[in-house]
Amino acid sequence: MIDKLVVVAIGGNSLITDPSNPEIDRQWEAVRETCRHIADMIADGWQVVITHGNGPQVGYILNRAEVAKREADIHDVPLDLVVADTQGSIGYMLQQALDNSLRRVGMNHTVATIITQMRVDPEDPAFDHPDKPIGGFMTEEEARAATEQGWHMVEDAGRGWRRVVASPKPLVINEINAIQAMVLAGYIVIVCGGGGVPVVRNEVGSLRGVDAVIDKDRASSLLAQTLRADLLLISTGVEKVCLHFNSPDEYALDVMTLQEAHRYLDEGHFARGSMFPKIEAAVDFVHNGGPRAIITNPANLARALHHETGTRIIPGG
Fold this sequence. Notes:
The chain has about 325 residues and is α/β, with parallel strands linked by helices. It has helices spanning about 25-45, 55-70, 80-105, 140-150, 175-185, 215-225, 260-265, 275-285, 300-305, and strands spanning about 5-10, 45-50, 110-115, 115-120, 130-140, 150-155, 160-165, 170-175, 190, 195-200, 205-210, 230-235, 240-245, 250, 255, 295, 310-315. The strands form four sheets. An eight-stranded mixed β-sheet has the order 3-9-2-1-12-16-17-15, sandwiched between helices. A four-stranded mixed β-sheet has the order 8-4-10-11. Helix 1 (about 25-45) crosses helix 3 and helix 6 runs parallel beside helix 8 (about 275-285). The longest helix is centred in the N-terminal third of the chain and has 26 residues, at about 80-105. The chain starts with a strand and ends with a strand.
């Protein structure tokens, strides 16, 4: 039997501590720091399953592809392959860094990454209303040309034009049987990277990738529910969830009940592109039977488990 199973959801942005300096060496530093704290959790007796975001990393790959296409006759990179690429690269970094961190504390565990496909409904309304920005900024002229090749473009807060894609709801983790088997066997697995590669079944039952991205926190909540985890731990860029964030009335929360979390979401306290999906995922996990969820930053993962910091989302009103 597995005691104290936790799904740790690492934000892609939390692995890039300074967006103006996103060099690989700096990403390695952030990955290694995060894994040191996860190793402390494992040493404390937690069975860990890791998920991660990939938003900035997907953007960098798409930017490189756009530059390369202008300079040479190089093909486009399909979005499903970009997500799979980042599952491999970020998974590699996490499994190497975590293996090293575990050895430093005298533990020997096998850490493995599973390239994960996430099945979605081909009739999901999100496909008719793409709203998830990806890639770099373009001029209006570039955006017009991109529209002619079938991309959906939106103007982004006066900073330029960006491509938007659908973000459908995750329904089924295609590799869940393999994930469960490896967890039960005691392996530390890294799965559902970037929310998973979105796929649908066609009319003959074959899987096919789709031009979309899945919210990492939604996928992590589904994974935690499916594995019946004891805890969903969302690692992000702030130590605690705050009301009135970045205002003179900012107030950090130690605990939120489900009822309070619903009220704060309805009152618009959390930005759609940052904290909102994390609160929504935590609420979904706890509402569907999860004992609790915690939101904090990488440096405080271990402390949050002991209720010393972070924001806990718990049942009740």
